[in-house]
UniProtKB/TrEMBL annotation:
The lineage of its organism: Bacteria, Pseudomonadati, Pseudomonadota, Alphaproteobacteria, Hyphomicrobiales. The gene is azoR. HAMAP family: Azoreductase_type1. This is FMN dependent NADH:quinone oxidoreductase. Binds 1 FMN per subunit. It comes from the Bacteria. Residues 3-198 form the Flavodoxin-like fold domain. Its EC number is 1.6.5.-, 1.7.1.17. Its cofactor is FMN. Pfam families: Flavodoxin_2. It comes from Agrobacterium albertimagni AOL15. Gene3D superfamilies: 3.40.50.360. GO terms for molecular function: electron transfer activity; FMN binding; oxidoreductase activity, acting on NAD(P)H as acceptor; oxidoreductase activity, acting on NAD(P)H, quinone or similar compound as acceptor.
């Protein structure tokens, strides 16, 4: 039975294109028999990494102060949620050439030495192996190819950090060019929905 984790990050609620398409993809992957855990990073407001957190993650759990233990409790829960999933669907807008900061905070909470990656004599090793990720990326302009591609820091960044954890970013579904007028936006959504169907059929 498949276990899907849907991570959405847009604050635009029902107006959000990445929320809508990522939800559609995750629901199709889960089907009738799979489990679907929804982690909406606007509902769950994560703290920025702070001093207590950076100290706590370098100590064994039983050596942490009460403040340090509290600072990693949410991170521990998010790591457990990630490790329980086979497939992760991540939705974000392209925001100033990168991802929503809510999603960046999630990454900072789930990338944990000893839990999701480990340093070995041969360099870092991902501990979240065997999981597949899909990204839904909504953007005003065009970034999947052409002159905008070098300014797309969202997809390469997520691919790097997920790969570091041992997770393969299988595919990115673009909902792009949505700022070029209502017709372009409609076309972008139709093309993303067609891609969702294709990925769901292939799964
Ligand atoms: C603060 C902000 C920054 C943005 N930066 C970019 C950008 O760098 N490039 C771009 O093409 N679109 C940019 N956009 C447009 C969004 O990518 C677009 O509205 C997208 O649909 C947002 O995703 P969402 O619909 O899931 O919220 C920006 C939008 C906002 C609100």
């Amino acid at each position: 039975m498949s276990s899907i984790l849907l991570v959405t990050s847009s604050p635009r609620g029902s107006e959000s294109l990445s929320n809508a398409i990522a939800t559609e993809l995750a629901e199709k992957f889960a089907g009738e028999t799979g489990t679907l855990v929804r982690r909406d990073l606007v509902e769950t407001q994560l703290d920025h990494v702070d001093g207590a957190f950076t100290t706590a993650i370098r100590k064994p759990a039983d050596a942490r102060t009460a403040e340090e233990a509290a600072s990693v409790a949410t991170s521990d829960a998010l790591v457990a949620e990630l490790m329980a999933a086979d497939t992760i669907v991540i939705g974000t807008g392209l925001i100033n050439f990168n991802i929503y900061s809510s999603l960046k905070s999630w990454i900072d909470h789930i990338a944990r030495a000893g839990l999701t990656f480990s340093y070995t004599e041969n360099g870092p090793v991902g501990l979240a192996k065997g999981k597949k990720a899909y990204l839904v990326l909504a953007a005003g302009g065009i970034y999947s190819s052409g002159p905008g591609a070098p300014m797309n820091h969202a997809e390469p960044y997520l691919k790097t950090v997920l790969g570091f954890l041992g997770i393969e970013l299988v595919e990115t579904v673009y909902v792009e060019g949505v700022a070029y007028g209502p017709e372009a936006a409609e076309k972008a959504v139709a093309s993303a929905k067609a891609k969702v169907e294709e990925l769901a059929r292939a799964a």
